[in-house]
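Hello K.,

You asked for the raw outputs rather than the summary table, so here they are, unedited. I folded two proteins back to back in the same session to keep the settings identical. This is the first:
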Amino acid sequence: MDKLDLIKSNKELVQYYDDFNKTVKKYINIKAKYSDQELPYTQSKFGGKPYLIDKEKYPYGTDGNPLKLLAQLNFTEIPHLNNFPEDGILQFYISFIDKLGLLGADFDNPTKQDLFRIIYIQGDVVDENTAIRDYQFPETGKDYYFPVTGEFKLDFKIIEELISYQDHRFSQTIGNRPHKLDISETTLDELYKITDSNVHKIGGYPHFTQWDPRDRDGYRDYDTLLFQITSQHTADNLNKPAEIMWGDMGVANFFIKSEKLIQRDFTDVLYNWDCF
């Protein structure tokens, strides 16, 4: 049973069926599996070594320290989603050396790419044979915290979902905040489960452990979830350390304005992460 059917079959939620129906959106679900072997430079991955074709262009933070690859998305491996690239590589780098332990985030100025960087490499230049292999990529070691331990290969699948109960547009779309809808506590818990979006993903609706950082002046037009990576314990880690952990079971989101995404302009991206 899909999520709309769950809304329709619930005697309390059915009154909101038409409103939820208007929010149906496709997204790319990402399954991350630990890899015990180093993945190809051009392959989609969490962690690991990035595809680099110019040593002089490796990203550094404004503090003078190198940034580290959080995730790399090769769109030739990913089902196409409206407005997103059909080819090319999108890389997400964040700081792991900042003294405050904020992993490159600036919560007062979340679009300021001082200690994080989004890099898009056009598809016509992507070639595994041109990847630089002799670069001394930064390692976190034991002295620094980084959310991705190990290297993860990724699988992608298109799925439909409804607006997340945490999205700042929920009350405007459905008519009220979730806890103020005309439903019982039991049904409210069911609604939370139906509209939960705590997965690795491209597009769709976001998940937060705290609140939507866009719900304030100046940030509401970051209407597209570019990428989300959440916390994940890994059971099949072959006795090697492998996990994804944002603080205490948190999640990170990257948002972009839809017109900037269409233009392939990734210089204006909102980066936020939170945890319990």
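The second followed immediately with the same parameters:
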Amino acid sequence: MDGVFRFILRLLLIPTAVLVAVTAQAFIILFGEWQLGAVLAGIAGPEEGVDVIAAVLAASYLTIVLLGLAWAIGTIGILFSEAFAARSWIFHVSNGAGSLVLATRLFPLVAGEPAPMEDLLYILGAGFAGGLLYWLIAGWSAGFWKPVFSPRPAPVAPARPGGTGTGPQGG
């Protein structure tokens, strides 16, 4: 029964962790890579507001497509960590960063963009942040079949001196 409970918990915890990680990555890409804050600060009047809203919606859509592609790639690492109980924060952070870098290289092929995003600082930062958030929520306890807080096995009793062996004393 304990294994079923841990499995159901993983089914709830993993999508929650992915959602939180994707949200953090979206904010880092929108406000860091694409400088959305500077665009919003430059609104001079209501006539520019419509254009800015269209730009914000387009940037948000492209970010969702990019992060969907990144987490589709990152799912391979998540499945690996669940199958082999890989609980290292380094594994999850590098999975987040690597999948996002790979997604930015594949992104022009999917979205029809002319060139990939070149500023790897924000891409790696978003990947590191997403991977770390995923690890903090779900990655530290990966592998439902291997409990984190399991009781320690009883220590092995030491061998008795003068055993029943057939050595020189066992005669």
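The chain is about 70% helix and 0% strand.

Happy to rerun anything if the numbers look odd on your end.

Regards,
P.
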